[in-house]
């Protein structure tokens, strides 16, 4: 009988200290996330030094909790997968060093994982992946369409030329005086408003799968300023609904177009903005019309940063023979295309 495979995932690239343990690549045995959002809220965004300090304080506690929840010992682990980049260098270093310390102390193989590969592989915890596959990656730092012809192969066919979708959400939220991170607040407001304010959609060149959200963000700010100057009142619900409609329109239209052009079997949603209820519904509606393409949308807990997704990607890369040694370093600008 084949022995079970146990992989530990460690994620500290931004403001969540997370450790997870998964069995046979797809079963979650433990998934612990310590969020620092409360500490960063009053600054309106993530403060790198504060993030690093929290990771140092939390990592051992989170590690112990994950091991306890999974009910295994270090000797049972087949590999430790850790986010090596991209992200905040000081934050990444805490996870990388923790992973190296455990790998060294218990002679366990180490696997470096790209953060976005992790977001994409969160989907493997939901359904088996079918190739060729297209992933729409929408997070606080990334907006990308990633084509995968097989496991571990990542080709970025479109990306944002300025702000990431999550970044645009957070900036617009700030102008509406909503707390950080603003995405969930805009999402909630949007449901109580009407998309009746005309806002631009950046389609870019006819054949481009790239995105651009900075013009939309500026348009929202202009609408607010113009209304203030005229002494008019704009319902924040309507502004949120109009902004959300514009973001979703572009994301969904380009995803559908790319899915058809690349003749993919599956489309998977990834990243923190994948928690957006409007985006989830719009994608479901569009792919209902395309029954040959399976759409996978992970549950909310697997969309935002977590370590189960890092372990899921690590499991596949480990099977493919990828290994890191104790010289593994944090790579804040790591490129996904050369990482597999
Ligand atoms: O993937 P993630 O947890 O961290 C990064 O790797 O960036 O994504 C965080 C981003 C934030 O910008 C946050 O505002 C956004 O995801 N977000 C949302 C929603 N929930 C989180 N954006 C829109 N609607 C949501 N419901
Ligand atoms: Zn992320």
Folded structure, characterized:
This protein is of the alpha/beta class. The protein has 2 domains: 6-121 and 303-339, ATPase, nucleotide binding domain (Nucleotidyltransferase, domain 5); 130-297, ATPase, nucleotide binding domain (Nucleotidyltransferase, domain 5). Helix content is 42%, strand content 18%. A 5-stranded mixed beta sheet has the order 3-2-1-4-5, with helices on both faces. Strands 8-7-6-9-10 form a 5-stranded mixed beta sheet, with helices on both faces. Helix 2 (48-70) runs parallel beside helix 3 (89-106). The protein is globular, with a radius of gyration of 20 Å. The model has no long low-confidence stretch (mean pLDDT 95). The structure holds 5'-O-[(R)-(carboxyoxy)(hydroxy)phosphoryl]adenosine and zinc ion. 5'-O-[(R)-(carboxyoxy)(hydroxy)phosphoryl]adenosine (KG4) binds at residues 14, 139-141, 166, 169-170, 181-184, 187, 271-273, 275-276, 304-305.
Number of strands: 10
Q: Gap between N and C termini, in Å?
A: 29 Å
Helix-strand string:
EEEHHEHEHEEEHHHHEHEHH
The CATH topology of the largest domain: Nucleotidyltransferase, domain 5
The proportion of residues forming helix, as a percent range, comes to: 40-55%
Superfamily (CATH H level) name of the largest domain: ATPase, nucleotide binding domain
Identify the CATH architecture of the largest domain. Answer: 2-Layer Sandwich
CATH C-level name of the largest domain: Alpha Beta
Count of alpha/pi helices: 11
Q: Report the biggest beta sheet as strand number plus sense, adding barrel if it closes.
A: 5 strands, mixed
- The strand line-up of the biggest sheet is 3-2-1-4-5
Helix/strand class: alpha/beta
Indicate the mean pLDDT: 95
User: Domains counted in the coordinates: how many?
Assistant: 2
Give the distinct bound molecules: 5'-O-[(R)-(carboxyoxy)(hydroxy)phosphoryl]adenosine, zinc ion
Sheet-strand content, in percent, reads: 15-25%
- Which regions contain 5 or more consecutive residues with pLDDT less than 50? none
Radius of gyration: 20 Å
The dominant shape is: globular
């Amino acid at each position: 009988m084949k022995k079970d495979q146990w992989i530990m995932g460690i994620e500290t690239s931004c403001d969540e200290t997370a450790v997870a343990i998964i069995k046979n690549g797809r079963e979650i045995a433990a998934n612990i996330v310590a969020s620092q959002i409360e500490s960063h809220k009053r600054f309106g965004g993530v403060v790198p030094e504060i993030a690093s300090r929290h990771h140092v304080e939390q990592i051992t506690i989170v590690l112990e909790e994950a091991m306890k929840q999974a009910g295994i010992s270090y000797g049972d682990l087949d590999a430790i997968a850790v986010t090596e980049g991209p992200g905040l260098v000081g934050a990444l270093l805490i996870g990388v060093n923790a992973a190296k310390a455990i790998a060294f102390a218990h002679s366990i193989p180490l696997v470096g994982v790209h953060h976005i590969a992790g977001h994409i592989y969160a989907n493997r915890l939901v359904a088996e992946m079918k190739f060729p596959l297209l992933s729409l990656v929408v997070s606080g730092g990334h907006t990308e369409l990633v084509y995968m012809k097989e496991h571990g192969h990542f080709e970025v066919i479109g990306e944002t030329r300025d702000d990431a979708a999550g970044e645009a959400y957070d900036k617009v939220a700030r102008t509406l005086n909503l707390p950080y991170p603003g995405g969930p607040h805009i999402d909630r407001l949007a449901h109580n408003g009407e998309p009746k304010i005309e806002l631009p959609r950046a389609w870019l060149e006819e054949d481009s799968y790239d995105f651009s959200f900075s013009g939309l963000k500026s348009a929202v700010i202009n609408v607010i300023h113009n209304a203030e100057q005229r002494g008019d009142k704009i319902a924040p619900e309507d502004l949120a609904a109009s902004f959300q409609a514009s973001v979703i329109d572009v994301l969904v239209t380009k995803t559908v177009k790319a899915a058809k052009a690349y003749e993919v079997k599956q489309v998977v949603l990834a990243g923190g903005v994948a928690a957006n209820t409007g985006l989830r519904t719009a994608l479901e509606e569009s792919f209902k019309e395309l029954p040959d393409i399976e759409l996978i949308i992970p549950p909310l807990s697997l969309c935002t940063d977590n370590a189960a997704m890092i372990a899921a990607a690590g499991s596949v890369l480990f099977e493919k023979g990828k290994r890191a040694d104790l010289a593994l370093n944090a790579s804040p600008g790591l490129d996904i295309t050369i990482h597999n």
